[in-house]
Structure formats: structure tokens, C-alpha cells
Amino acid sequence: MLFARTIISIVACSFALSTAADFISDAEPQMGHYQGSPYATWEKLYAERLQVRTFRQSLNGQQNKIVRRYLQYIPHRIYQNDQTFPLVILLPGGSTSAEQLRFFDMGDRFERLADAENFMLVYANAYPLDGQPAPHVAEQPFNANQGYWRTCVGGPGAGDNFYDVDDTAYIKNLIAQMQREALPIDPDRIYIVGLSNGGEMAEHAARTMGGQIAAVAAVNPVFGLPATLELNACAAEPSQAPLSMMIMHSTPDPVLTPIFESLGIDYEVSTDQSVAAWMGALGVNPESAVDYDLPNTVFEGEDYVGDEHWSLATRNSFITRTNYTPATNGATFTRLQVHGGGHQWPTQKAAPNDDTSTFGFRNQDINAEVIIWDFLKDKLRIAE
Questions:
Q1: Is residue 381, in this structure, part of any structural domain at all?
Q2: Which of 8, 22, 89, 175 is the most exposed place for a label (fewest CB within 10 A)?
Q3: pTM higher than the cut 0.90
């Protein structure tokens, strides 16, 4: 298997939404105002019942603490029932924030889904790549609170203190804080969903928190391996805790394919190897695959007349779904390949000002959150 240490140089989408600020100047007035503090968010989000939560987290091996943040959405009906409910934790891509994930990829669709299906929702926020908070962006609300998830793989330009920030601990502390607030979280139905570097972190959480979460879904993840295999900064462990997993990825990926190629690695091959490794560790039989194409309802980029490579390469993408027979321990695995898709969250409505020359055209045949929730909602934490 090609799990080369050179992968440590790979970036997720470190320039993804930081460059997006160049394309949204006309939209900024719709977003409200940001006060340059991790305790704040855009006014528009406050109006939509999204609440900022923060806690202090210790750095590895040090006495000082840093402020971590997340956005929380709790449907009204959850407060009116004497029972427990699922929790979905969403992880944005590299060098982006919880707010950017919502604006560019989710809108309020995941919240409306939470209302309809009765689950709690969190937009998590990574910590800045250089390990320093960035309150100096009060005049640039789209660049506020950007972060990069710490996994087994380093980040672009990361310093020696990169791994002083523990993001597995962040997720655990986030869940613990919600429990301290007496929110009725069902411990058997905690799910983690991530995009790009966030998808990489979702796989990392599967590696490090498998016994505490029920399932993960990774969309266009960089790279991840189960706990039984060494990966760069992470040593191999004796076993991988069982859980269910969905991986949704573009073939080829406009952002990750060139980055991997620059390292002499075939991204599609490495993704196949990652998928095989996870199925092996989870006990899922690869020979039980059932493939089918989802309806190709939208011709993405039909009216495009330019000559940008990735814009042309991602016109009219389509999706193949592969389901596998569950393992004897109950773990399930599902793969969705977005053929000719962009490095984007698939959604039936294109986001404002998508940069198709860099990220390709966003697949519009599905709303990814609906597909993902349908996969997650019946998954229970598997006892080791």
C-alpha cells in the first residue's frame, strides 16, 4: 500500500475559502458584522438561532489554554421532549471556519433537516494553522476564525507547535460541554461529518474516537487510515474500534489530484487504498459491493464557455454509490464516487460565486446532507 511519509506535505484546501473572499465582496453586506472576537459571529447567524459557544482547551504538555469555539443549533422540539437525541458535528475544510462552511456549502439546509428529523447540530471550528488566534480580521468577516484540523498529517506551513493543539480533545470537550449544558445527547448516536481537511479530521476521529462515536461521513477527504496502520505522525495501534463510515469523493479531485501529483502520488489510487484499509479494519467484505448510479438530473456547467481545465473537467458530473454488506459487528461502509465532480459539497443549488477554475463545478444531482443523514440516522455506537 502507498502510505508514503511524503503525504505529510499534503494540504487539504488550505487556500480554499481564503481565496473565496476575492469573489464575495458583493455578498458581504448580507452576512452581518463580525467584531474580531472568537466569541462573536455574523449578525445574520444570530438571527437564525445559531449560538456561539466557546471553551478553554489546554495545549499539549503546557499550562496555558486557548479559546476554542463552535456554532450550535438546537431545534425547539428537543427542549419539549423528555428523551435523548442524535448529535451531528460538522467539520469545515482547511483554512476556513464554521461560518464559511455554512454559507458556502450548507445554507440553512442542515438546520432544516435537524428540525424535521430531531437532531442537534454543531458547526465546529478548527484552530489557526500557526497556532495563534487571529482577532485582527474585524474588517474581513469572511476570514475570521479560520482554522486547520490537526490529524496524522501536517498542515501547509505548520510550525513546530502545530501538534500542541489536540483536535480529538477538542471534539471530546465540545461534546462534554454540551452535556454540561444538560442538552439531551444520545451517547449512542453521535456522528461526525467533514469536508476536505474536515473530512480528513472525520476519518481521524474514526481512528481515535471509534468507541465513542457511531459513524462518520467524509466528503472529499485528503487521506485517512484506520488506527491499525501507521500514518505519518500517528503510530499504529493494536486495533480499530468499530463504527460505520461513508466516504464521498470526486474522481478526479480538482484540488487534491494536483497536490498529490506534485508529490508523485496518484490521488485516486491512494483513495482506493484508504477505502480498502478502512473496510478491512472494520470487517466489511469488499466482495459484497453493490453499485448503482444515482440519477444525473443536472448538467453542471452546461452554459460554460471558458477554457479553464477544471471547469471543463467537472461539467455534467454523475455519482456512483457502492453499498456493502454490514460486518458481523454491525459496522457498515458506503462509498459515493462523484465522477468528474468538483472539490465541493454536492448540493442541488450552486453556492454564490463558486470558483470553478480552482474547485470545479459543484455536483448538483444531490443534496449531500440528505444522503449523509439518511446513512447516519439509524447507526448506533458499536460496543467494543
A1: no
A2: 22
A3: yes
